[in-house]
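I hope you will forgive my troubling you with a question about protein structure. The matter concerns a single protein, recorded as an amino acid sequence and a row of backbone structure tokens. Please examine both parts with care and let me know of anything in them that strikes you as inconsistent. Here, with my thanks, is the record as I have it:
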Amino acid sequence: MKNAMAIEPSKISPRLSVAGQIAAEDVADLKARGFRSIVCNRPDGEGADQPTFAEIAQAAGAQGIEVRNIPVAGGKVSDADAAAFGAALDELPGPVLAYCRSGTRSATLWSLSQADRLSPAEILGATKAAGYDMNGVVRRIANGGRTPTDAPDASHDIVIVGGGAAGIAVAASLTARRRDLDIAIIDPADVHYYQPGWTMVGGGIFDPQETAKTMAGLIPHGVRWIKAAVAAFEPDQDAVILDGCRVVKYRRLIVCPGLKLDWGRVEGLIDTLGRNGVTSNYRYDLAPYTWKLVQEMRGGRAIFTQPPMPIKCAGAPQKAMYLSCDAWSRRGVLADIDVQFSTAGGVLFGVKEYVPALMEYVGKYGVGLNFFHNLVSVDGPAKTAVFEVKAPDAEVRRIEVEFDMMHVCPPQAAPDFIRVSPLADADGWVDVDQATLRHRTHDNVWSLGDVMNAPNAKTAAAARVQAPTVAENVIADIDGKSAVAQYNGYGSCPLTVERGKIVLAEFGYGGKLLPSFPRALIDGTRPSRAAWLLKERILPPIYWKAMLRGREWMAKPEQTDAPSN
């Protein structure tokens, strides 16, 4: 019986797999696996039990496999080595196996050779999936595979990655406490959006222009705006690497770039968004199309989807449905429309106290609830959607459903440059202590907003409370003290169940109810006009004129029980 290879190859790309040291007797097995070329990246004589390249080449020749010798000393991968490796990959027939002592040099050579073809996140993701950490050469990857200078291009006391709600709010909270802080925000966007308003745009209540302002007009006074995208992090070097390999050093880092709307995970979705009746309030340019479809619809089937958690504002897919149903009801066409809510989850809303009020509206509007239904593909021209149904204790199946209108909530994940970084947990989110929002491994790093892994709802209201918590703790750290503030998981989801009424869901960790107002004023478990007034008239100016300017209305941080140093 033939012995299996001692080391299993790890696939990095369709053309390349890497492995630790192979033996001459492994070559026949590699041939059987389909490999057509072998690249040796280990110098002869590096180990006492190491076969020479000539031995491997002889065995490969007997199997009709091409070989190339690009020996690299451990820890000394030069730019020329990477260029030679890239040329070999282009010239040799694939698939190719590259080997060294452990596979790391081969993975490094591939990473550097592909740096002018793939993004740093793509390279780091591919090598991480194969079991190799390339963060040690991330500056070279970001520099097109070439060795850059080690000198930083900029250095600041505090660097904030992300200029969304969380990033600008925490910058404003910091400057409100210490005017002399040297702070920089890194974000490539020209426009800042009030995303909670897009539900109202899709319901015909707000104009889209009301939800957008220029980024330059919102950056707090005295804070530097670095208009660039982040490629990677080097937390051990207190450095952020920007696209183009610019290096920004920091004393303290705050990470809050938001999350990634992964439209591409639903087959066919990108090709049909904004036409064929397929829309989403999760995009600024598509929310007006939602309202256009609602106005034009007089009969047929309308589907509203929700992907697996976590997502930004878990109530948003329902909000779109309720406002659409209300508009159809007011026009007298709701009875002719088959409304379906298809969610990958098993409950209508994650906090049970709010479910009875929502179910009343489900009944009122005649909505069909389809739990454990995850949208996997869309054929826009054919007006059909395919859902994967994963009900408990049942076989997974796929069903095809026709539609006339479909509002899609896209799958969501941490941004690629976060997911593959040393700051991420196993699921790709920034790994923080859920009370202090400080990174669990790197003491001078904090995170807030949608990208961190605390088990709270991902909403702008949550970021409003998190920002002063992080600001207080960063200031305490500057002063040599322990954390002084803690976050209780607060999040808010104003569920727009009809035009003029809202179920104001407010809750913290573990689903604990955390109402902001006396029950006599707003009972969050029941629909109310007062909550609608809050959403329509009060919250937008609070966002623009208070939260983003360091005025922490109803967002005073809770104090920790631990004494300061």
Observations:
- The chain has 15 helices and 28 strands.
- The domain at 263-411 is CATH 3.50.50.60 (FAD/NAD(P)-binding domain).
